[in-house]
Every structure is written in C-alpha cells, then in structure tokens.
Write a structure and sequence with these properties.
By secondary structure, the chain is mainly alpha-helical. The chain folds into 2 domains: about 80 residues, Orthogonal Bundle (Arc Repressor Mutant, subunit A); about 140 residues, GntR ligand-binding domain-like (Four Helix Bundle (Hemerythrin (Met), subunit A)). About 65% of the residues lie in helices and about 5% in strands. A hairpin with a 3-residue loop joins β1 and β2. α7 packs antiparallel against α11. The longest helix is centred in the middle third of the chain and has 25 residues. The model has no long low-confidence stretch (mean pLDDT about 95).
Length: about 250
C-alpha cells in the first residue's frame, strides 16, 4: 500500500497482499493501528506468529524489521518486539496511513490531520501558481475533466481528485511538498468515504466551481485566486472530515 493511488484503491475493500512478506506486514500493521496489539505490549513470540500467519522465521523477521522502520514496533534482545505509541509512527508513510484508514481514525486524529493538510495544500496552491509548467497545467485540466466525468463512481472519482492534487504538489517544484502526496491522498479518501457513507451520488458537484477556479488560478499564474479557491475546497472538506466543523 505504498504506491500513489493505493489508498484510493482500498475504497473498494482491503487490497490483497502480493506475497507472504507484505501479508504479514499488513496484518500486524493493521493489528497495531486498530489496537488489537495494544501500545506498550509485547507482540507474540516468533513461534506463535509463524504459526498464526503461516510463514517462515525469515519472512516474519523481515516483516517486523519493516514495521520497525515505520516506527510501529521496537525489537529488544531478551524482551521481544514492543508496540510503540503513535507519536513514534511515521504518519507520512502511505502504508501506516492505510492501516489507520482501515482501522477507522478517531476524531482527534482527523482534526490534527486536517490542520496539517490545510497548511500543505494552501502552500502547494500558492507555489504551483507561479512555478507550474505548461505540461502540468495540461494535466491539471485533464484531471479536472476526469473528476467531472467520474462523478458517480466513488473510486475513479477519488483517484481523479487525488491526481489533481498530486499534480499541484509536482507543480510546486518543492521536493518536500511532493513528498506529502500520501497525506494529500489520505485527505481525499477521508472526504470521499464520508460522502459515500452519507449516500452522496454526485461526488463532483459540491466543489465543482471551486476546482474550476483553482485550475483557472494556476493556469493564469494568479496565486491569490488559487489560494482562495483552495481555501474554499478545504472548508467544504472540513465539514465531511471533521463533522464538528459544520457547527
């Protein structure tokens, strides 16, 4: 679940692991994110986990090393593998975000996420307006049209909306903003999920004018217009991502 678009594709259900290694990573990662493996506890020993997941010691050890690199666990000699608090998790990692998504993020997490997303998206829109290339403008309008064309199909719609935002990240010409595409994708998925649960059938309509204004602002190199339009988009998304924002 580390490739761009993988969080969106999970809207239709959890993705099947490609191999035993990724299967164990996903199962333990979700177990930690959901609280099944509670923070501060020691994971079951190797023999138990090998039996539970039907894998060899080598596969298990490699999977746990991957989870340790993502900040979810810490292995200690003669102690075992301890589950670390969320403050240690790499929340910029797409896999980690995917497990949190599958487990169901709580309101406090979504509120904190929204604060960060606002900063990233506003900065991205402003920079993209002055730094975009002609090809990036073309792709922006392509994804804008795809967003409208896929408006009744949740997953293709969300993919188009994400690719629109990812194009903005690329157009910012800032490598740090480019590296936040996983967070941007997580935001698109959360708002789409909320709309799906509410029975929305036309996903594009609510923000269509704001997205057009944003594309127009980027095309014209008008940073003020782009920022206003992005602010309008984020305000609409707040209502869905953090319900208390409606009040």
């Amino acid at each position: 679940m580390s490739e761009p678009g993988s969080l969106v594709r999970a809207l239709s259900g959890r993705q099947t692991a490609r191999n035993y290694h990724s299967y164990v990573i996903a199962e333990v990662g979700l177990g930690i994110a959901s609280g099944r493996f509670a923070v501060g506890t020691i994971l079951p020993n190797d023999a138990e986990m090998m039996d539970s997941y039907g894998v060899s010691r080598t596969v298990l050890r490699e999977a746990l090393k991957t989870l340790e690199a993502k900040g979810l666990v810490e292995a200690r000699a003669k102690v075992g593998t301890r589950v670390l608090p969320r403050s240690r998790w790499n929340l910029f990692d797409r896999s980690v975000l995917g497990w949190i998504q599958d487990a169901g993020p709580d309101a406090a997490f979504l509120a904190s996420f929204t604060e960060l997303r606002d900063s990233i998206e506003m900065q991205t829109a402003t920079l993209a307006a002055s730094r975009r290339t002609a090809e990036q403008v073309r792709m922006l309008h392509y994804w804008l049209n795809q967003r409208a064309a896929m408006t009744t199909f949740a997953e293709p719609f969300a993919l188009a909306e994400f690719e629109f935002h990812r194009t903005l990240c690329e157009a910012s010409q800032n490598p740090f903003l480019r590296a936040t595409s996983g967070l941007v994708e997580f935001g698109v998925v959360q708002t789409t999920l909320a709309r799906m649960r509410a029975g929305v059938s036309d996903f594009a309509a609510e923000k269509a004018s704001h997205y057009k204004a944003l594309a127009d602002g980027i095309t014209a190199g008008d940073a003020s217009l782009a920022a206003r339009a992005m602010g309008d988009i984020l305000s609409q998304d707040h209502v869905w991502t953090v319900p208390s924002a409606a009040g």
